[in-house]
Each structure stands twice: as C-alpha cells, then as structure tokens.
Specification:
Ribosomal Protein S5, domain 2; 2 domains; four-stranded antiparallel sheet; 8 helices; binds ligand 2P0
Length: 353
C-alpha cells in the first residue's frame, strides 16, 4: 500500500474518498472524544464529489519536518482545522508505534472537488481519505471496518465514506462497536445537489449538534423516532421501494432540522431559498416525479431520485428554480465507490466495494 520515496526517509500514500449524503441522519453524540453517535445513520456515497489526500510521514526523529503540515487545495492550514488533523494523525502515530514501526511528522496534501464547509460533507470525504492515506503511509494494514472506526474519530460521518453505495453506521456503544458497513440492495439511486450557497456555514455542525443535544426539547423524540426511521429505510431498500425510502428520508431530515430550531439559541441552516427548493421538489413529486428532499448542516438541498430519472428531475427543478434562486447550481451525482488507496508511485487499488 505504501512505499518509501527514493532517497528519503519518507513513506507516502494517496487515498481517494467520496462524499456521502445521509438519508437517515447522524445528529448528536453520546461520547465526544470517541465520536460515538446517539443514533445509527444511513447514507449514499456519491460518484463525482470526492477528496484526494496524500500523506507522507518522516521517520521518527528524521530530518526536515518539526511539525505536521497540511495543504488544503494549495493553501496551508493553521489554527483549529490544522490541530484537528494533527490530533487525528496522533492516533495513527500511536497505532504505528504500537505495531513496532513508529512514524514522525506528516506532510499532508489534500484536494477537494467539494465546496469546503458548505454542508456538502467535505469532512466526511476528507477524514475518510486521510484515514486511508495516513494508515497506509504508516504501514498499518487495516480492514475496511477498522478504517471506518478510524475515520469516525476524525469526523463521525467519515465512517460511512469508507464504503461505496449505501452504508449504515451502527451507533454502537464503544470504539469497537461503532462502525459503518455496506447495505446490499438493487436500488439504483442518484442525488441532485441544489447548490444554493457554497459559502462556509456560520455554526459548525459539531457545535450545532452539542447545542441541540443539550437544549432542544425535541431532540430525544427525534432520537427515538430515528430508530424506526432506519428500520423503515432498510426495509424499503430490501423491497426495492424508492418511494418508501424517499418518504422516510425526507421526514427524518425535517425532524433533525426541527430539533435544531428548538435548540437555544436556535440553529437554522435553511434559508428562504432552501424552502423554495424543497417546495419545488414536492411539486414535481406531486406531478409524478420520483424526488425527495434532504438537508444537512447548510442551506443546500439534496434531492434523492433514481439514476434513470436523475437528468429529467434535474431539468424540471432547473425549470422551476432558475431565476427564482439567484446563482443556483446543480450537481447530478450517482452512487459512488468506496475508499481507494495507492502508494505514491503505484496504481489505484480499490480497498472496498
Ligand atoms: C450526517 N451531518 O449524518 C449529518 C446530517 C450533518 C447533518 O454528519 O462532529 O462533520 O465531525 O462528527 O460528521 C456532519 O457532522 O460531525 C454530519 P463530527 P460531522 O451526515
């Protein structure tokens, strides 16, 4: 998986991980440090939105680096985003040391095809790619489940981006039992992202989750309902019934946003344009199109549909929303692959389906 760069004390690997969109949401932690969620969640990994990350470790005590450096889309990270990656790399260094092959500081280069921090889940693809590249560069040979658990420590939703297609993240009760795995099924799904505003969000999802758990009178009811929602979603997938999956996904998302809005102070990621977009989704659905809306920690609206109907659904949403939502962009994404890892000089090899 990884190889020393010629003539240096550096070992490097590159990984590609794709964004996932939750159909049954993760919102709220039972344990902050291990990132154990209050609810299990279900997502679809997408094809065209992904993060590519290369990690090169120096040998411990090696020459050159005196700290971790991270370049995101060509710019050096600093402050808390850098610290979060440093803490994650410490986990990988700890494991490498335990395995008897310690590594030193890292040089990380990462590129997103996703607008960062815009509610398009760049932390999910980002930490999944970092888990894949860092563990391979450190010489750790982790199973997909171990990679999912490791990615979870960076960002909860990253546990799901280890896998392609539909994935369920079991909440579990400790580090070992909280991991994602693929969900089999024949539904050929697509998601249309309505990019309403690609700017960074005012409140991080981490802070917004904390606030919801601590203060929302509606949170516990949503958690309880979420278990039923997941059962219904898995049953719909097993039956190949996109309408049932879409209906329960939309309702689960509204429940999450309702709980946020009754937190104190309230968290409101949706804008008037988000509501206009969701109304348009409902209108085309009432006219017979397979289309259901879901929204995350940002104003953008994602529309679940079938892969075959995706282009037509996109065209009719564009028809309704162009000129109504200024600057609207749309991205049609279909089911995408799981994590891929390669050595810097080698060919890409899929690690999971
Ligand atoms: C999800 N979101 O299931 C939910 C729905 C946003 C709304 O997971 O604190 O970046 O790093 O574990 O994974 C966003 O939260 O949060 C998220 P942390 P994460 O996709």
């Amino acid at each position: 998986m990884s190889e020393p760069l010629p003539g240096s004390d550096v070992v490097a690997a590159t990984a590609v991980a794709h964004v996932n969109i939750a159909l049954i949401k993760y919102w709220g932690k039972a344990e902050e440090n291990l990132i154990l969620p209050r609810t299990s969640s279900l997502s679809l990994t997408l094809d065209d939105l992904y993060t590519t990350t290369t990690v090169a470790f120096t040998a411990p005590g090696g020459t050159g680096a005196s700290k971790d450096t991270v370049m995101l889309d060509g710019a050096a990270l600093s402050g808390s985003p850098l610290n979060r990656i440093h803490d994650f790399l410490d986990l990988v260094r700890g494991r490498a040391a335990q395995a008897g092959s310690p590594v030193g500081f890292a040089r990380v280069e990462t590129f997103n095809t996703v607008p960062t921090a815009a509610g398009l889940a760049s932390s999910a693809s980002g930490f999944a790619a970092l888990a894949g590249a860092a563990s391979a560069a450190a010489g750790l040979d982790l199973s997909p489940r171990e990679l999912s658990r490791l990615a979870r420590r960076g960002s909860g939703s990253a546990s799901r981006s280890i896998f392609g297609g539909l994935a369920v993240w079991h909440a579990g009760h400790d580090d070992e039992s909280s991991f994602a795995e693929p969900v089999p099924g024949d539904l050929d799904l697509a998601i249309i992202v309505l990019v309403i505003d690609a700017g960074p969000k005012a409140v991080s999802s981490r802070e917004a989750m904390r606030r919801t758990v601590a203060t929302s009178p509606d949170y516990n009811a949503w958690v309880e309902r979420s278990a039923d929602d997941l059962r219904e979603a898995l049953s719909a997938i097993a039956a190949g019934n996109i309408a049932r999956l879409g209906a329960v996904s939309e309702s689960n998302a509204w429940g999450m946003h309702a709980a946020m809005r009754s937190a104190m102070p309230p968290v409101n990621y949706l804008t008037a344009n988000s509501i206009t977009a969701v109304d348009a989704v409902r209108e085309i659905r009432e006219a017979g199109a397979p289309a259901w809306a879901t929204m995350d920690a940002g104003p953008n609206v994602k529309v679940l549909t079938s892969a075959t109907a995706a282009d037509e659904v996109e065209a009719s949403l564009r028809g309704r929303l162009t000129g109504v939502i200024p600057g609207l962009r749309t991205i049609v994404a279909r089911s995408g692959p799981g994590l891929e890892v390669r050595s810097v000089a080698g060919a890409i090899a899929p690690m999971t389906r």
